């Protein structure tokens, strides 16, 4: 054992000597244990002058959910990089490691000036790493309405939209669009470009933390789409939703459903209308609220066709109202962007329209990055996930959940602090109820995340949460203290339906006891007897037929209610929904 350790140290000293000779700088090197695990002489992290994978460490930049990031000197080229050491638990099996390698080849084909570049990746012992450009500038979470005008905010969103549409066009989703992942690069005190970092952050966590079992939310909650919160199938419209949340934040300084209570944030994304941004910025035109409402629609098909279409509509809302006085390329920030950051923090680098007022605070400096490599090696799925941000805006793809302190972060929490156990319990209970209903009615509702249509006869089923009172419709109010709801509409049948979950049979009975005048019946279907209640409700002067089914004798379903209603009003629709119920795969 001692012989092995001495041999390893001799090899280490030889490697250090090569760098001493080539750089003329006295360096300290990291030792390596026999298991290949990185060990730092005199500390638990890499320090200035140490060598890792050939890179010479300058200083730590930060750490986050997937690893630690360091400013480092490239071993062969005259440039500085952001070197990220990835947490080993992200690669707990051979499949995840192989996926990392395969997808690295795929992401190498992406090339867009608005997407952060990845220079290289590799494995040192059992430690995986990636290197990215060190960026001089700020991330958008450092900005807001005190710094950006509405025109500037929409211009930034337009630049990000172009990058997203490019990625979507080649089948790549971002999955974590938020202000902290938008970088405004500066040179000589001027904004040069806008870049999007941290592609695919949720995918790696999707692979390593099963949402159904743990209740993890693999995106920043304040900016997460309803599809992501419920683990439904996602496409480019999920990124558009997050982009709209980001625009809302840049315009107002808060997310549309911002709250200190994660359960309330979830409820907002799933059930509530977004509050008018004009309530926070009265100078904005009403048309902008209309644009945001469409991009923040609960159902993806109701959103814009692309992210660029969202940005164009937002800009048009200013232009037609007279709010946009000059072109976005000519606007200047209303305050120094650098002034809003701590002077000791390194900044981020990039080309676009020229914005003045980005002077670096006195006493700060950055290494000469040289020409920034413009080819964006950005990953799909697995590799992109690991370009997770760490620190307060220091490197491309290097921004943590904590860099945007008011945003709800992954796992039901809005910052780097631990989630409230009570809030996490509520969320886990809700997700468990959705899964239990899918299991109890496999022919009616597919599990979340199964892709495609979720419901019987191609109905689209969206989840809702009953965390707190204030449900959004008279029907949901009448359903009293429900925990979760699969709300299924559309499709090819004559009816829409809901499946509600409760904490006890007594809660189900309380709903039944409060029904309006009704006809109770015991109906036989597929060899089973069901308890049904037929009744009518009135909404805005229109009568609607309802058929409610309860399952008091079924241990698996006694906490559930199936509620069927017609797509159109009219007392004559009762026969149609009864026929629909008879044909439905309830059993």
Automatic annotation (TrEMBL):
Q: Does the keyword Lyase apply?
A: no
Q: Does the keyword Transferase apply?
A: yes
EC identifiers of the protein: 2.7.11.1
- Which UniProt keyword terms apply here? ATP-binding, Kinase, Membrane, Nucleotide-binding, Serine/threonine-protein kinase, Transferase, Transmembrane, Transmembrane helix
Q: Where is this region: Disordered?
A: 349-368
Q: Where is the Protein kinase domain?
A: 55-316
Show the stretches that span the lipid bilayer.
Answer: 376-399
| A Pfam family that the UniProt record links to this protein | Pkinase
GO molecular function, a single term: ATP binding
Name the enzyme group at the top EC level. Answer: transferase
Q: Which residues bind ATP?
A: 84
| Name of the protein this chain belongs to | non-specific serine/threonine protein kinase
């Amino acid at each position: 054992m001692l012989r092995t350790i001495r041999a390893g140290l001799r090899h280490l000293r030889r490697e250090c000597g090569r760098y001493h000779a080539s750089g003329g700088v006295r360096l300290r090197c990291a030792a390596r244990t026999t298991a290949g695990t990185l060990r730092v002489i005199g500390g638990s992290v890499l320090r200035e002058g140490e060598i890792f994978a050939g890179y010479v460490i300058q200083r730590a930049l930060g750490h986050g959910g997937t690893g630690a990031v360091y400013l480092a000197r490239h071993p062969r080229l005259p440039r500085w990089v952001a070197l990220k050491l990835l947490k080993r638990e992200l690669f707990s099996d051979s499949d995840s490691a192989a996926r990392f390698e395969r997808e690295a080849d795929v992401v190498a084909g992406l090339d867009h000036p608005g997407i952060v570049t990845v220079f290289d990746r590799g494995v040192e012992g059992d430690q995986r790493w990636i290197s990215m450009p060190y960026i001089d500038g700020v991330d958008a979470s450092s900005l807001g309405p005190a710094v950006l005008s509405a025109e500037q905010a929409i211009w930034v969103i337009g630049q990000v939209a172009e990058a997203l549409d490019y990625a979507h066009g080649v089948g790549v989703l971002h999955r974590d669009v938020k202000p902290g992942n938008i970088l405004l690069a500066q040179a000589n005190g001027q904004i040069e470009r806008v870049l999007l970092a941290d592609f695919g952050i949720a995918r790696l966590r999707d692979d390593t933390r099963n949402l159904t079992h743990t209740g993890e939310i693999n995106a920043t909650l304040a900016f997460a789409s309803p599809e992501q919160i419920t683990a439904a199938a996602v496409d480019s419209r999920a990124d558009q939703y997050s982009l709209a949340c980001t625009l809302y934040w840049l315009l107002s300084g808060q997310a549309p459903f911002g709250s200190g209570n994660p359960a309330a944030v979830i409820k907002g994304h799933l059930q509530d209308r977004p509050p008018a941004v004009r309530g926070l910025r009265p100078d904005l035109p009403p048309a902008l609220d209309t644009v945001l409402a469409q991009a923040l629609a609960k159902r993806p098909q109701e959103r814009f066709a692309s992210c660029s279409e969202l940005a164009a509509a937002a800009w048009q809302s200013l232009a037609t109202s007279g709010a946009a006085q000059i072109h976005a390329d000519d606007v200047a920030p209303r305050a120094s962007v650098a002034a809003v950051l701590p002077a000791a923090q390194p900044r981020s680098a990039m080309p676009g329209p020229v914005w003045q007022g980005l002077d670096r605070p006195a006493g700060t400096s950055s290494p000469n990055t040289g020409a920034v490599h413009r080819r964006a090696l950005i990953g799909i799925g697995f590799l992109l996930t690991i370009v997770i941000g760490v620190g307060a805006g220091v490197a491309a793809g290097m921004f943590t959940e904590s860099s945007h302190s008011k945003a709800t972060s992954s796992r039901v929490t809005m910052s780097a602090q631990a989630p409230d156990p009570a809030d996490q319990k509520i969320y886990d209970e809700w997700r468990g109820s959705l899964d239990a209903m899918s299991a109890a009615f496999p022919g009616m509702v597919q599990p979340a995340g199964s892709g495609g249509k979720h419901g019987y006869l191609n109905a689209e089923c969206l989840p809702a949460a009953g965390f707190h009172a204030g449900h959004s419709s008279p029907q949901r109010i009448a359903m009293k203290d429900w925990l979760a709801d699969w709300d299924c509409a559309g499709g090819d049948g004559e009816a829409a339906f809901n499946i509600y979950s409760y904490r006890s049979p007594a809660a189900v009975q309380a709903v039944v006891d409060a029904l309006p005048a009704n006809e109770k019946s015991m109906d036989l279907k597929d060899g089973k007897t069901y308890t049904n209640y037929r009744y009518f409700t009135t909404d805005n002067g229109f009568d609607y037929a309802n058929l409610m089914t309860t399952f008091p004798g079924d241990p698996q379903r006694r906490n559930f209610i199936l509620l069927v209603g017609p797509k159109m009003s009219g007392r004559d629709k009762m026969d149609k929904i009864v026929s629909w119920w008879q044909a439905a795969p309830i059993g």
